[in-house]
Amino acid sequence: MIPALRPGDKIAIIATARKIxxxxxxxxxxxxxxxxxxxxxxxTIGASYNYFAGNDALRLQDLQNALDDESIRAIICARGGYxxxxxxxxxxxxxxxxxxxxxxxxxxxxxLHSHIHTLGLESVHAIMPLLFPKPGAEPSIESLRKVLFxxxxxxTAAPHAFNRTGTATGQLVGGxxxxxxxxxxTRSDISTDGKLLFLEDLCEYLYHLDRMMVHLDRSGKLANxxxxxxxxxxxxxxxxxPFVKSAYEIILEHTGKYNYPVCYGFPVxxxxxxxxxxxxxxxLLEVSEAGTLLRYSGATL
Length: 301
Fold this sequence. Notes:
The chain has helices at 26-34, 56-68, 94-98, 110-118, 138-148, 177-183, 206-218, 247-255; strands spanning 10-14, 38-41, 72-77, 102-105, 123-125, 153-157, 166-176, 196-202, 227-234, 262-264, 277-279, 282-288, 291-296. It is an alpha/beta fold. Helix 7 (206-218) runs parallel beside helix 8. The N and C termini lie close together (9 Å). One of its GO terms (biological process) is proteolysis.
């Protein structure tokens, strides 16, 4: 288990994907310091190479340095976008595997969560520094603090008409649907058998979403789940010839033949309420007529 943070611990903020400036993360830096943490800002913050936070070599080195430096107790990815998969196969995880630490982020960072899961380690799917100033983000930030400092976690979600009731336990895995689709067949691909899978996405065409769900089903990633958690499918797009079905209706179509519990509308994804989830940790999912409960313990001290 990864040790919980304590006041005085040092964390690093880096960018593995799209570029970001220092002013954009100053609020987050202030919050982390108010938690009693030392903050080290990576060379990728403020760096620019076309779309990216520096070229592949710089982003790889920044990530590698943060993984290898034993004085750094957590790595916070500043933002998502695209770019993590361009460098992940060149990362040496050997020191990180011997001396694990928290790695935090979501969206494009799903690539790192999945890869870390193949190593048998936990990571944190959570709000990133770019989004700290977003109105309504306070509960998301607080949930991240609770994870990092090893406090108990328990989340609820309102009932949804598409929910399938039931109770299940399993390791929590998942993240951004588009990224999980992209990782299929790579060294970062994960097994979902017997696990609680959570999915979220942003700005996809509805027919793209349908295609990805078909692929997940055809590749066996839906058949043997313990349970399924559907988060926000934000800002989905139609084509000139409408696909007609909503994102949730598409997911319902491709998962309706299975019997495990499914919840919709869980607060995870590209919205201000994006609660921190510990990927790789055993969790309990209860879906009832009253709503959804997701529960597991905090980090081991």
